[in-house]
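ARCHIVE CARD
CATEGORY: sequence design from structure
SOURCE FIELD: tokenized fold
FIELD CONTENT:
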């Protein structure tokens, strides 16, 4: 059973900023699960590529001299500096980072058959991401349209009570209190009136 929603306080004009912020809040909340799944899928892809190409060398990487390695975010870059030859190897990303960019994957070549499964996975991720972004944009347009159809908090409450509840949580009503009035008679005496 749904909880009955009650209007709170006095009706006030909805500002453009409030409507836009509420649109972002509602759409982000609705799309969070989808984008989290995509991020986890990206992290799995990065890990599987690193396991495939770097996995056999993990022990050797850990035994390299300290001056050959440096860390940037979740990637360990190895640059042996011998005879002017520089090679870069990326170690396995940390499990703490889910926001690993797919661009940090060692270069994958479409002509290399060993790379093809990873490239196919990357293409599927990019398709999912594009569909999710498109859905997010459509949802934002619909939400913004619905929010802009109400000019006041009272109208928002009447037209879309669920959004009104979110509005109240994002922008709680602030009671304006005036400072106490100084007795006018005393003030007149001080001013010589």
């Amino acid at each position: 059973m749904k909880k009955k929603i009650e209007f709170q306080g006095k009706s006030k004009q909805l500002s453009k900023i409030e409507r836009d912020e509420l649109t972002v809040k509602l759409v982000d909340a609705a799309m969070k699960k989808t984008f989290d799944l995509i991020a986890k899928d990206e992290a799995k892809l990065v890990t599987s590529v690193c396991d495939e190409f770097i996995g056999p060398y993990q022990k050797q990487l850990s035994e390299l001299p300290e001056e050959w390695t440096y860390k940037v975010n979740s990637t360990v870059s190895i640059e042996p500096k011998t005879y002017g030859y520089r090679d870069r190897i990326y170690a396995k990303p940390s499990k703490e980072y889910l926001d690993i960019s797919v661009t940090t994957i060692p270069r994958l070549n479409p002509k290399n058959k060993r790379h093809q499964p990873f490239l196919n996975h990357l293409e599927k991720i990019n398709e999912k991401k594009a569909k999710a972004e498109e859905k997010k944009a459509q949802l934002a347009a619909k939400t913004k349209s619905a929010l802009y159809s109400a000019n006041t908090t009272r109208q928002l409450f009447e037209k879309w009570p669920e959004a009104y509840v979110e509005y109240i949580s994002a922008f709680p009503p602030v009671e304006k209190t005036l400072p106490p009035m100084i007795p006018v008679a005393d003030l007149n005496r001080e001013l010589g009136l």
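CARD ANNOTATION: Confidence is low (pLDDT under 50) at residues 73-105. Residues 16-53+98-172 form one domain.
SHELF: design records, drawer C
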